[in-house]
Amino acid sequence: MAQKTRTTPAGTPTNVTQNHTKGGIGESTLRPDGTLKVTGEFAYSSDMWHEDMLWGQTLRSTVAHALIENIDISEAVAMPGVYAVLTYDDLPAKMKNYGLEIQDTPVLANGRVRHHGEPVALVAADHPETARRAAAKIKIDYKELPLVTDEASATAPDAPLIHEGRDDHHAGHVPHPNIVHRQPIIRGNVEEARKRADVIVEGEYTFGMQDQAFLGPESGLAVPAEDGGVDLYVATQWLHSDLQQIAPVLGLPPEKVRMTLSGVGGAFGGREDISMQIHACLLALRTGKPVKIVYNRFESFFGHVHRHPAKLHYEHGATKDGKITHMKCRIVLDGGAYASASPAVVGNASSLSVGPYVIDDVDIEAIALYTNNPPCGAMRGFGAVQACFAYEAQMDKLAAKLGMDPVEFRQLNAMEQGTIMPTGQVVDSPAPVAELLRRVKARPMPPEQQWLAAGEAADVRALPGGLSNTTHGEGVVRGVGYAVGIKNVGFSEGFDDYSTARVRLEVINGEAVAMVHTAMAEVGQGGVTVHAQIARTELGVTQVTIHPADTQVGSAGSTSASRQTYMTGGAVKNTCEAVRAKALEIGRRKFGSYHPAWATAELLLEGGKVVTDGGEVLADLADVLEGEEIDVELEFRHRPTQAFDLVTGQGNGHVQYTFAAHRAVVEVDTELGLVKVVELATAQDVGKALNMLSVVGQIQGGTTQGLGVAVMEEIIVDPKTAKVRNPSFTDYLIPTILDTPTIPVDVLELADPNAPYGLRGLGEAPTLSSTPAVLAAIRNATGLELTKTPVRPEHLTGTGV
Amino acid sequence: MRVNFTVNGRKQEADDVWEGESLLYVLRERMGLPGSKNACEQGECGSCTVRLDGVPVCSCLVAAGQVEGREVVTVEGLADYAAHRADSHPGGGCASGSCGTSIDAAKRWTAHGSESPRAQDGQTGEAGGLSPIQQAFIDAGAVQCGFCTPGLLVAADELLERNSEPSDADIREALSGNLCRCTGYEKILDAVRLAAARQEEAV
Ligand code: FES
Ligand code: FES
């Protein structure tokens, strides 16, 4: 299996071109990486290539919970083409675990596996197939242990402990060592408020385990360096967080691990945790050769954490005139074998469990469990998604019981600017919840029976079941449902959330040109577009170069929590302002004596010139900068937040809130239990749209992921074995273009006075309300209660549970 | 084994190909053509779509040996391929005679109010050397992470070759084998409508 006749090696990522040089903020500038992406030249992490490189392969556990009694690598090592086989014993440093908040995740299993698919051994070989075959030749003797798979088995007094001897900072206040974190929130007096209720509704809801299913699987290339360090080209969401976790387990100082972002094929939270990064570095350092690891789809399902499946129990009461009196809820999230982002997901699930409503008397508890199920962590919507599914079902139940219109009922209870959250935090910027609902409701309905539109035989493509030709319209009923949700933006609970930007301004070929260097992970969201727009706006130049993201500049924080435009966008803005001040200072020094306005007027940079606020041109920026170069690196922080009190849940925990509403129209074949979503109209407040084309793209993409959960997406874990049953795109279904309806988008721009340009993080909110809207529409069509995601045919036909 | 075939109009020879290697692997790892993507290697996602003697196929499901003596077009060759087609069949044509999207309708989509004002700001068509469908994907905002894009472009280009005025249902049917996780597909539909309308306009 000799390798390469390859002619054009792909090396360092070259992931932006400068074709698109127009557009400041507010304009729908096109992506600077668009041309490379449509020609196939954009270098994704799986495209990295190095002469003489090896392929890495992970061997993963075939059982969920077991002691490893013996590992025999002899046959694998003996295979021709194999360069290294590594197990736990080969780890070079004292530190052998990593983790986002709690370092509980072993780089390679240390005598025990805690979930199906946990990495146990690594192979490097000269062909990916050789590596796979060698990994298959490693023999492992497992002694299976009893499983912990749900709340009852995890919190039983004699439950096996997933992590013995916990000493993390949550360990001291959780009621059981198999609970990662617990956050109660108590406000008002629920028992008193309950007495005022004319109706009370209760519900038990189950949210399935969703996968991020980004299309570009985990992959990257580690290249050993002469100084004993390593250069890593990888797709991730946060270079510096990876670095902090990688360096200690390699036994290297951070400056010897140099990371460069390579092209990322989507992320959605699934790249917040380490996957192949450390493994590739270990193999590269051991073999002295570049090592590339590319997961296939099967392995990708084991290579990243998923969305927490959840059980949610809610009680709401309301008076007969439609005011909500109180809310009680208990949310149990299954965090799986390792902590990942579970503590923060608990914080979000609890603090956002009330939804975008005014409810003064609440009793809330959210917990995340340690179990032997697959580890769960960050995914778009982060704890707010599960809660939204449940509280929105409750809103419909309450409205129905009161005989009220579900939208009017929501509007009557909608929060607004000034509302106090259950955590005691005052919502101090616009919260147009009622207006968003009004907008989706006011939108014209899609025509009935669209399959008849042609006027001839039914176009089965427009019917549930599609080309399977399962119905011609008989037995098909329509339903309409509404939902609205609230999500926080940025990292909460006192986290020191910051981002760094470096901006250089210089003259190249007689023109002033800006270079923006950040470590922001561009995962498809369009940050690179927006950074150039910000630099053009602030510096009045046309040419902006986006430097590849790497660890040679300060941290940009994570591309998650809807925070990057706010945070790194904010950092670019602030840094540009500092650069502008320096440019004007140089101008004053050089030309100040020629015109009094240099000293007296408010000066701006526009169209490559220094102008007064009255529009008088004082100098060419290129002349000002001639012979000088301005280079500034600054950090940007949002206003501080506080940790939630561990008993009462009180605290100003969040930076900013963001809101979206959906109206779903569905058609259901009630005989076969098939659903066709006809339209998913959405309205969202984005504060200020820096790039409307990208804004709409984000909202439509988020909406589609919510649709997926509603009707098809779920990782199925066998409750008896804790093994994943559907790790493939054949069995784990994500929406195709046939499953996805038109998604009309209505964008509001109500500025947040505290945010850069007034913007509101936007990527996650549409994922929240999309799922409950579809569920509500299916309930409306069928009259069924439907308390689980995803809705499957058997739930609609009464042939299953 | 040795495999001889034509890729994007150029004769290629791959040596020491192991009999289990897919066309996708040979293209990516031996030919240095990583444009075709590997997202499932199972025929489920369409990211690896190429044309084999003109027919769109999932290259992850084609054994390298099966392409002996045949012609492959990947996303890297799409612009050339489309240009060549335009030369030999100016205007293309509507095979069924009952084609759906009118130029007016497409213009409405591209000019969705504030959603995509770039049709007016002179940013369209600037890259040059792209096929109409590639340019339309950029202009319509149909590219986010872009991992699905190469496969979608090859499939969409083949659709437009067959059917120059596809209805929305036609587009959905033709692209139903290509998964995209980022966009929600709406802008992909916009892009195909836009490319179809521009082709129409060019006639
Ligand atoms: S990689 Fe070939 S269809 Fe998915
Ligand atoms: S999968 Fe990311 S743009 Fe389609």
From TrEMBL, chain A:
The keyword Glycosyltransferase does not apply. It is an enzyme of class 1 (oxidoreductase). One of its GO terms (molecular function) is iron ion binding. The keyword Ribosomal protein does not apply. Residues 1-21 have a biased composition (Polar residues). It comes from the Bacteria. SMART domains: Ald_Xan_dh_C. PANTHER family: XANTHINE DEHYDROGENASE, XANTHINE DEHYDROGENASE SUBUNIT D-RELATED. This is Putative xanthine dehydrogenase subunit D. It comes from Streptomyces hundungensis. The gene is pucD_2.
From TrEMBL, chain B:
GO terms for molecular function: 2 iron, 2 sulfur cluster binding; metal ion binding; nicotinate dehydrogenase activity. Residues 1-78 form the 2Fe-2S ferredoxin-type domain. This is Nicotinate dehydrogenase small FeS subunit. It comes from Streptomyces hundungensis. It is an enzyme of class 1 (oxidoreductase). SUPFAM superfamilies: 2Fe-2S ferredoxin-like, CO dehydrogenase ISP C-domain like. Its EC number is 1.17.1.5. Pfam families: Fer2, Fer2_2. Keywords: 2Fe-2S, Iron, Iron-sulfur, Metal-binding, Oxidoreductase. InterPro entries: 2Fe-2S-bd, 2Fe-2S-bd_dom_sf, 2Fe-2S_ferredoxin-like_sf, 2Fe-2S_ferredoxin-type, 2Fe2S_fd_BS, Beta-grasp_dom_sf, Diverse_Oxidoreductases. Coiled coil: none annotated.
